[in-house]
Amino acid sequence: MTPERRQRLLVLATASIAGLYMANLILIEPLYTWGTRRAQQIEKLRKQVRSGEQLIGRADRVQEVWNRIRTHSLPSNPSQAEQQLLNTLDQWARESGSEILDRVPQWRGDEADHQTLTCRLEVNGSLSSLTRFLQRLESGALDLKVDAMQLTTRDPAAQQMTLGLQLNALVLTSNTP
């Protein structure tokens, strides 16, 4: 092989490698990245579609739960809501044979569509009367969430106990369907 021919061959090989490198840089790498991103986006959209299909499948149950929340929440008027909660707690205490020692309602939340009425409550009674009170709280007409509960006794025989509760009640302030 002559030096001129070898030189042409080396120039051709170098130009080919440089061309392949540029093609990789300009075409192959961006197309691969685009394809990867597209595949990720397609997978994300498929998950969203599956989630939407599941939600559509549960639409009746979701609507049923939402209707229950709306009908079992407190009135949107703050004074009426507070009065209804306190009257209901008093009624449950009377029905269970226990006595409310202390109750402190407090409003929380600045959301446009709902607020939370928190109530710190101390109820005194026997273990059975406090159990009946908790059963009424659990199965009553209001949807209440118990955030904290503490049971204490002051006598050695544990005949009289005090139940400390922190309750939350939902108050819907808008008529969102």
Short description:
This protein has 177 residues and is α+β, with helices and mostly antiparallel strands.
User: What is the CATH topology assignment of the largest domain?
Assistant: Alpha-Beta Plaits
Helix-residue proportion:
55-70%
Task: State the separation between the terminal residues, measured CA to CA.
Answer: 87 Å
Strand order of the largest sheet: 1-2-4-3
Helix-strand sequence: HHHEEHEE
Low-confidence stretches: none
Give the biggest sheet.
Answer: 4 strands, antiparallel
Number of strands: 4
Question: What is the class of the largest domain in the CATH system?
Answer: Alpha Beta
What's the CATH architecture name of the largest domain? 2-Layer Sandwich
Q: What structural class results from the helix and strand content?
A: alpha+beta
Q: How many domain regions?
A: 2
Portion in strands: 15-25%
- For CATH, the homologous superfamily of the largest domain is named as Ribosomal protein S6/Translation elongation factor EF1B
Q: What's the mean pLDDT score?
A: 87
Coarse shape = elongated
Gyration radius, in Å? 34 Å
